[in-house]
Fold this sequence. Notes:
It is found in: Cell junction, Desmosome; Cell membrane; Cytoplasm. By secondary structure, the chain is an alpha+beta fold.
Amino acid sequence: MVVCGLACWRCRWLLPLLLGLAIIMGIIALAGRGWLESESEPYIQQASLWESCTRGEEDLNWSCESLMDYGWGRAAAATYLVGFVILVICFALAVIAFSIEILRFNFVRGIGGLLFVVAAFQIIGLVIYPVKFTEEIPLMGDNMFSWAYGFGWASTVVVIGCAFFFCCLPNWEDEVLGNIKPTCYYSSPEKAPYLN
């Protein structure tokens, strides 16, 4: 029977896999046009991290305005993008770290520290965007922060979880490397007379 716990050498690829999932969600957030959308029909407003688009109720064409013309728009995009780039670097470092037979645990803890930096940058971008957007962009109708914005937060939550695991992994160094011998429990004949 194969037992694979949290700190198991056979399961070492789970953390890089989760970082890969965070990267995919980050790509969706960066490319998605659903950071802000109209809540119900008629759909007259939508926004991405990069631009805000509106249209009339009868009009089929979107009229878009770049958010890069605003200082807060550049700041939100830059902080989220910097966090994303560092996340990609952490993913590459994690793949390298877990590919080496002799795992460098201080290296792994450093990846965890970088992931906390990623989370900080992404949270800054995800907080700046809705606060300043609702203050400076005129909203039309009922709107909601939508699926692409949610993917940005989901990526950040996964990054925070991975950061904790990367930082705590060295505490289980012996278990991960298989240096601990199995413990066998037995009772002496005096305590178990039925064995005679």
